[in-house]
């Protein structure tokens, strides 16, 4: 996800007074499906007696595999498309679902973090439940921070800030 996408979507949220919710996918990289045969050495302490030099074939993704991030993205992309979301042409980590009523939900994905933006809290809640059925999620509620940037908001004035003090202090 591009930082410009975050700023545009959060700008929309401020000006249209949209809800901004945040989720974290637990063990995101374990959700990906492997498309090729991958073998690994037996882990220390888990070697099979008499078969110390044997290897194990992986049937599912593991953290540390170079394929894990793309396989997770492919799985999520396929899942979200089945729920009538379309990815934007300019940023393939921004997904939009439009409803017949004219309402919409925007979902931003950054590795295992998600922002969900929309008018209707019930539709957002329904989406969160659907996501949680397929992927173990941690609901972080109203978004307070994204990519190390604090989200500060004055809804009455339709204003939103992304102070980046932590970036300045760390560099």
Low-confidence stretches: none
Main sheet? 6 strands, antiparallel
Percent strand equals 25-35%
Q: Specify the structural class.
A: alpha+beta
Terminal-residue CA separation: 22 Å
Instruction: Please provide the count of β strands.
Output: 12
SSE series = HEEEHEEEEHEEEEEH
- Kindly report the average pLDDT value: 87
Shape annotation: elongated
Helix percent reads: 25-40%
Q: In DSSP terms, counting alpha (H) and pi (I) runs of 4 or more, how many helices?
A: 4
The Rg value, from CA coordinates, equals: 20 Å
Sheet with most strands: strand arrangement: 4-5-6-7-1-8
SSE topology:
Elements lengths: L2 H13 L3 E7 L13 E3 L13 E3 L10 H15 L3 E2 L6 E5 L5 E7 L2 E6 L2 H14 L2 E6 L2 E2 L2 E2 L1 E3 L4 E3 L3 H6 L1
Antiparallel strand pairs: 1-7, 1-8, 2-3, 4-5, 5-6, 6-7, 9-10, 11-12
